[in-house]
Protein backbone atom coordinates (compact mmCIF):
# COMPACT_ATOMS: atom_id res chain seq x y z
CA UNK A 1 0.00 0.00 0.00
CA UNK A 2 1.28 3.47 -0.89
CA UNK A 3 2.62 5.38 2.10
CA UNK A 4 0.47 8.51 1.71
CA UNK A 5 2.05 10.31 4.66
CA UNK A 6 5.46 10.06 3.04
CA UNK A 7 3.95 10.87 -0.33
CA UNK A 8 2.58 14.15 1.01
CA UNK A 9 5.84 14.98 2.76
CA UNK A 10 7.93 14.35 -0.37
CA UNK A 11 5.53 16.28 -2.57
CA UNK A 12 5.58 19.24 -0.19
CA UNK A 13 9.36 19.28 0.03
CA UNK A 14 9.63 19.04 -3.75
CA UNK A 15 7.20 21.94 -4.15
CA UNK A 16 9.19 23.98 -1.64
CA UNK A 17 12.47 23.37 -3.46
CA UNK A 18 10.90 24.21 -6.82
CA UNK A 19 9.44 27.42 -5.42
CA UNK A 20 12.47 28.49 -3.41
CA UNK A 21 14.83 28.21 -6.37
CA UNK A 22 12.33 29.13 -9.09
CA UNK A 23 13.09 25.82 -10.77
CA UNK A 24 10.03 25.69 -13.00
CA UNK A 25 8.29 28.58 -14.73
CA UNK A 26 5.09 28.85 -16.68
CA UNK A 27 5.51 27.33 -20.13
CA UNK A 28 8.55 25.23 -19.23
CA UNK A 29 9.16 21.89 -20.84
CA UNK A 30 10.83 19.69 -18.22
CA UNK A 31 12.90 16.70 -19.25
CA UNK A 32 12.94 14.17 -16.41
CA UNK A 33 16.02 11.95 -16.52
CA UNK A 34 14.85 8.51 -15.49
CA UNK A 35 17.44 5.90 -14.59
CA UNK A 36 15.09 3.30 -13.15
CA UNK A 37 16.31 3.95 -9.60
CA UNK A 38 14.14 4.95 -6.63
CA UNK A 39 15.12 8.63 -6.82
CA UNK A 40 14.18 9.28 -10.42
CA UNK A 41 10.89 7.35 -10.13
CA UNK A 42 9.98 9.46 -7.09
CA UNK A 43 10.97 12.67 -8.86
CA UNK A 44 8.81 11.82 -11.87
CA UNK A 45 5.92 10.93 -9.60
CA UNK A 46 6.19 14.24 -7.73
CA UNK A 47 6.52 16.34 -10.86
CA UNK A 48 3.51 14.71 -12.50
CA UNK A 49 1.48 15.42 -9.38
CA UNK A 50 2.64 19.02 -9.13
CA UNK A 51 1.93 19.50 -12.80
CA UNK A 52 -1.73 18.74 -12.02
CA UNK A 53 -2.07 21.06 -9.02
CA UNK A 54 0.26 23.94 -9.83
CA UNK A 55 -1.26 27.24 -10.85
CA UNK A 56 1.23 27.37 -13.70
CA UNK A 57 1.33 25.24 -16.79
CA UNK A 58 4.38 23.19 -17.70
CA UNK A 59 5.11 20.04 -19.67
CA UNK A 60 6.86 16.95 -18.37
CA UNK A 61 8.47 14.24 -20.45
CA UNK A 62 10.77 11.39 -19.44
CA UNK A 63 14.02 10.25 -20.97
CA UNK A 64 15.94 7.09 -20.23
CA UNK A 65 19.40 6.45 -21.51
CA UNK A 66 19.99 2.81 -22.37
CA UNK A 67 23.77 2.57 -22.04
CA UNK A 68 23.82 -1.02 -23.27
CA UNK A 69 25.08 -2.47 -20.04
CA UNK A 70 24.96 -6.25 -20.03
CA UNK A 71 21.70 -7.46 -18.54
CA UNK A 72 19.93 -4.08 -18.74
CA UNK A 73 16.21 -4.91 -18.74
CA UNK A 74 15.35 -2.64 -21.67
CA UNK A 75 11.61 -3.38 -21.54
CA UNK A 76 10.96 -2.13 -17.99
CA UNK A 77 10.96 1.64 -18.48
CA UNK A 78 9.13 1.77 -21.82
CA UNK A 79 6.43 -0.44 -20.31
CA UNK A 80 6.20 1.65 -17.15
CA UNK A 81 6.08 4.96 -19.03
CA UNK A 82 3.59 3.71 -21.60
CA UNK A 83 1.35 2.59 -18.77
CA UNK A 84 1.66 6.06 -17.19
CA UNK A 85 0.69 7.50 -20.54
CA UNK A 86 3.34 10.19 -20.63
CA UNK A 87 5.58 11.40 -23.40
CA UNK A 88 8.89 9.55 -23.20
CA UNK A 89 11.99 8.67 -25.16
CA UNK A 90 14.49 5.87 -24.78
CA UNK A 91 17.91 6.94 -26.02
CA UNK A 92 20.14 4.06 -27.07
CA UNK A 93 23.85 4.83 -26.81
CA UNK A 94 26.46 2.18 -26.15
CA UNK A 95 28.56 4.11 -23.65
CA UNK A 96 29.31 0.84 -21.87
CA UNK A 97 31.64 -0.36 -24.65
CA UNK A 98 33.36 3.04 -24.89
CA UNK A 99 33.96 3.18 -21.16
CA UNK A 100 35.29 -0.39 -21.05
CA UNK A 101 37.61 0.28 -23.98
CA UNK A 102 38.97 3.61 -22.73
CA UNK A 103 39.35 2.95 -19.02
CA UNK A 104 42.54 1.16 -17.92
CA UNK A 105 42.03 -2.14 -16.10
CA UNK A 106 41.36 -1.68 -12.41
CA UNK A 107 40.43 2.02 -12.71
CA UNK A 108 36.94 3.24 -11.91
CA UNK A 109 34.78 3.74 -14.96
CA UNK A 110 32.27 6.13 -13.43
CA UNK A 111 33.99 9.43 -14.29
CA UNK A 112 34.06 8.81 -18.04
CA UNK A 113 30.63 7.18 -17.97
CA UNK A 114 29.12 10.23 -16.25
CA UNK A 115 30.74 12.64 -18.71
CA UNK A 116 29.39 10.68 -21.67
CA UNK A 117 25.95 10.41 -20.11
CA UNK A 118 25.86 14.13 -19.41
CA UNK A 119 26.75 15.01 -22.99
CA UNK A 120 24.08 12.66 -24.34
CA UNK A 121 21.43 14.09 -22.02
CA UNK A 122 22.26 17.64 -23.07
CA UNK A 123 22.03 16.63 -26.72
CA UNK A 124 18.70 14.91 -26.03
CA UNK A 125 17.35 17.96 -24.19
CA UNK A 126 18.15 20.06 -27.23
CA UNK A 127 16.63 17.55 -29.62
CA UNK A 128 13.33 17.41 -27.71
CA UNK A 129 13.29 21.12 -26.91
CA UNK A 130 13.47 20.83 -23.13
CA UNK A 131 13.79 24.09 -21.24
CA UNK A 132 14.76 22.38 -17.97
CA UNK A 133 16.59 19.12 -17.25
CA UNK A 134 15.49 17.49 -13.99
CA UNK A 135 17.88 15.21 -12.12
CA UNK A 136 16.92 12.99 -9.18
CA UNK A 137 19.66 13.94 -6.72
CA UNK A 138 18.36 14.42 -3.18
CA UNK A 139 19.42 16.14 0.04
CA UNK A 140 21.79 13.36 1.07
CA UNK A 141 23.54 13.34 -2.32
CA UNK A 142 24.14 17.05 -1.81
CA UNK A 143 25.60 16.57 1.65
CA UNK A 144 27.78 13.67 0.55
CA UNK A 145 29.11 15.82 -2.28
CA UNK A 146 29.77 18.69 0.10
CA UNK A 147 31.84 16.46 2.38
CA UNK A 148 33.57 14.72 -0.54
CA UNK A 149 34.70 18.09 -1.85
CA UNK A 150 35.83 19.22 1.60
CA UNK A 151 37.64 15.99 2.47
CA UNK A 152 39.20 15.22 -0.87
CA UNK A 153 38.93 18.31 -3.09
CA UNK A 154 39.79 21.18 -0.74
CA UNK A 155 36.65 23.03 -1.75
CA UNK A 156 33.48 24.11 0.02
CA UNK A 157 31.16 23.05 -2.75
CA UNK A 158 28.10 20.86 -3.08
CA UNK A 159 25.53 19.98 -5.74
CA UNK A 160 23.40 23.05 -6.43
CA UNK A 161 19.62 22.74 -6.64
CA UNK A 162 19.75 24.64 -9.94
CA UNK A 163 22.59 25.35 -12.33
CA UNK A 164 23.51 26.24 -15.86
CA UNK A 165 24.98 23.27 -17.74
CA UNK A 166 28.70 23.26 -18.58
CA UNK A 167 27.98 24.11 -22.21
CA UNK A 168 25.88 27.08 -21.10
CA UNK A 169 22.82 25.87 -22.99
CA UNK A 170 20.61 24.26 -20.37
CA UNK A 171 19.19 24.82 -16.91
CA UNK A 172 19.56 21.74 -14.74
CA UNK A 173 17.28 21.40 -11.71
CA UNK A 174 17.21 19.05 -8.71
CA UNK A 175 13.61 19.05 -7.45
CA UNK A 176 14.41 16.51 -4.68
CA UNK A 177 17.01 18.84 -3.13
CA UNK A 178 15.10 18.93 0.19
CA UNK A 179 14.08 15.25 0.29
CA UNK A 180 15.87 12.74 2.52
CA UNK A 181 17.10 9.57 0.89
CA UNK A 182 15.61 7.38 3.62
CA UNK A 183 12.14 8.84 2.96
CA UNK A 184 12.52 8.30 -0.78
CA UNK A 185 13.64 4.70 -0.20
CA UNK A 186 10.68 3.93 2.05
CA UNK A 187 8.23 5.64 -0.28
CA UNK A 188 9.65 3.88 -3.30
CA UNK A 189 9.21 0.55 -1.55
CA UNK A 190 5.59 1.34 -0.79
CA UNK A 191 4.99 2.30 -4.44
CA UNK A 192 6.56 -0.93 -5.71
CA UNK A 193 8.46 0.80 -8.52
CA UNK A 194 10.10 -1.59 -10.99
CA UNK A 195 13.63 -0.74 -9.86
CA UNK A 196 16.52 -1.36 -12.23
CA UNK A 197 19.73 -2.10 -10.28
CA UNK A 198 22.42 0.52 -10.75
CA UNK A 199 25.41 -1.82 -10.67
CA UNK A 200 24.79 -3.66 -13.92
CA UNK A 201 27.99 -2.30 -15.39
CA UNK A 202 29.95 -4.15 -12.68
CA UNK A 203 31.63 -0.98 -11.47
CA UNK A 204 31.95 -0.33 -7.76
CA UNK A 205 30.36 2.74 -6.23
CA UNK A 206 32.96 5.40 -5.46
CA UNK A 207 34.56 4.12 -2.25
CA UNK A 208 35.03 7.58 -0.77
CA UNK A 209 31.37 8.44 -1.34
CA UNK A 210 30.40 5.13 0.22
CA UNK A 211 32.46 5.90 3.32
CA UNK A 212 30.90 9.37 3.63
CA UNK A 213 27.42 7.92 3.23
CA UNK A 214 28.14 5.49 6.08
CA UNK A 215 29.54 8.29 8.22
CA UNK A 216 26.41 10.40 7.68
CA UNK A 217 24.15 7.45 8.49
CA UNK A 218 26.15 6.83 11.64
CA UNK A 219 25.87 10.49 12.65
CA UNK A 220 22.15 10.40 12.04
CA UNK A 221 21.77 7.53 14.50
CA UNK A 222 23.86 9.29 17.14
CA UNK A 223 22.68 12.86 16.55
CA UNK A 224 19.26 12.91 14.88
CA UNK A 225 19.32 16.66 14.17
CA UNK A 226 22.72 16.84 12.55
CA UNK A 227 21.83 15.99 8.95
CA UNK A 228 18.90 18.41 8.81
CA UNK A 229 21.06 21.13 10.34
CA UNK A 230 23.84 20.51 7.82
CA UNK A 231 21.33 20.67 4.97
CA UNK A 232 19.95 23.95 6.31
CA UNK A 233 23.47 25.36 6.57
CA UNK A 234 23.78 25.16 2.78
CA UNK A 235 21.08 27.82 2.63
CA UNK A 236 22.59 30.05 5.31
CA UNK A 237 26.13 30.75 4.21
CA UNK A 238 27.97 33.63 5.88
CA UNK A 239 30.85 34.61 3.55
CA UNK A 240 32.30 37.08 6.08
CA UNK A 241 32.78 34.18 8.47
CA UNK A 242 34.60 31.91 6.09
CA UNK A 243 38.01 32.62 4.61
CA UNK A 244 37.57 33.07 0.89
CA UNK A 245 38.90 36.42 -0.32
CA UNK A 246 37.04 36.03 -3.61
CA UNK A 247 33.73 35.70 -1.83
CA UNK A 248 34.32 38.39 0.77
CA UNK A 249 36.70 41.30 0.48
CA UNK A 250 38.69 40.87 3.70
CA UNK A 251 41.44 43.12 2.38
CA UNK A 252 39.33 46.27 2.39
CA UNK A 253 37.34 45.91 5.60
CA UNK A 254 37.67 48.93 7.85
CA UNK A 255 36.41 49.98 11.23
CA UNK A 256 33.20 52.00 11.25
CA UNK A 257 32.99 52.99 14.90
CA UNK A 258 29.47 51.60 14.92
CA UNK A 259 28.31 48.20 16.23
CA UNK A 260 27.97 45.79 13.34
CA UNK A 261 24.60 44.10 13.07
CA UNK A 262 25.03 40.31 13.16
CA UNK A 263 28.77 40.89 13.35
CA UNK A 264 31.29 38.74 15.09
CA UNK A 265 31.21 38.83 18.84
CA UNK A 266 34.94 39.25 19.18
CA UNK A 267 36.47 36.40 21.04
CA UNK A 268 33.29 34.70 22.20
CA UNK A 269 32.61 31.07 21.49
CA UNK A 270 30.26 30.79 18.51
CA UNK A 271 26.67 30.81 19.68
CA UNK A 272 24.95 27.67 18.51
CA UNK A 273 21.31 28.48 18.00
CA UNK A 274 18.86 26.06 16.52
CA UNK A 275 18.48 28.33 13.53
CA UNK A 276 17.35 25.46 11.39
CA UNK A 277 14.35 24.95 13.70
CA UNK A 278 14.90 21.26 13.92
CA UNK A 279 12.78 18.94 15.97
CA UNK A 280 15.35 17.19 18.14
CA UNK A 281 13.28 14.06 18.51
CA UNK A 282 12.82 13.40 14.80
CA UNK A 283 15.60 15.38 13.18
CA UNK A 284 13.15 17.03 10.83
CA UNK A 285 12.48 20.71 10.32
CA UNK A 286 9.57 22.19 12.18
CA UNK A 287 6.78 23.97 10.33
CA UNK A 288 8.00 27.45 11.22
CA UNK A 289 11.25 26.80 9.40
CA UNK A 290 9.65 25.58 6.24
CA UNK A 291 9.42 27.93 3.32
CA UNK A 292 5.86 28.67 2.37
CA UNK A 293 4.70 27.15 -0.85
CA UNK A 294 4.08 30.19 -2.92
CA UNK A 295 2.79 28.87 -6.14
CA UNK A 296 2.45 25.17 -5.65
CA UNK A 297 -0.25 24.33 -3.15
CA UNK A 298 -0.43 20.74 -2.04
CA UNK A 299 -3.71 19.38 -0.82
S1 LIG B 1 28.19 2.64 -11.84
FE1 LIG B 1 28.42 2.04 -14.00
S2 LIG B 1 26.68 3.00 -15.01
FE2 LIG B 1 26.90 4.02 -13.04
S3 LIG B 1 28.22 5.78 -13.47
FE3 LIG B 1 29.57 4.12 -12.83
S4 LIG B 1 30.21 3.17 -14.74
FE4 LIG B 1 28.40 4.39 -15.21
Commentary on this structure:
With 299 residues, the chain is an alpha/beta fold. It has a domain at 4-206: Rossmann fold (3-Layer(aba) Sandwich), CATH 3.40.50. Helices cover 39% and strands 9% of the residues. It has nine helices and six strands; from the N terminus they run αβαβαβααβαββααα. The protein has a six-stranded mixed β-sheet with strand order 3-2-1-4-6-5, with helices on both faces. Helix 2 (38-53) links the parallel strand 1 and strand 2. Helix 2 (38-53) crosses helix 7 (181-191). The longest helix is centred in the middle third of the chain and has 18 residues, at 110-127. The relative contact order is 0.16. Residues 99, 109-110, 113-114, 198, 201, 203 line the site of iron/sulfur cluster.
Q: What topology emerges from the helices and strands here?
A:
Elements: H1 4-20, E1 29-33, H2 38-53, E2 59-66, H3 76-84, E3 88-92, H4 95-102, H5 110-127, E4 132-134, H6 139-153, E5 162-164, E6 171-173, H7 181-191, H8 207-222, H9 226-233
Parallel strand pairs: 1-2, 1-4, 2-3, 4-6
Antiparallel strand pairs: 5-6
The structure holds iron/sulfur cluster.
Amino acid sequence: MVNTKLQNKLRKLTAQAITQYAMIADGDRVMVCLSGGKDSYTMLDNLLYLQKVAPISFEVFAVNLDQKQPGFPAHILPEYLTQLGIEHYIVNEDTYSIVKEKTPEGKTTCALCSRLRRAILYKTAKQFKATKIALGHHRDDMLETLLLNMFHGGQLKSMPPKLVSDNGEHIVIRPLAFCAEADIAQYSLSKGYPIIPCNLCGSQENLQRKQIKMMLQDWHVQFPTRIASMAKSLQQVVPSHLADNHLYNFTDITTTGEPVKDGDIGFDEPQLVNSANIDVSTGTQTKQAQTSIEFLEIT
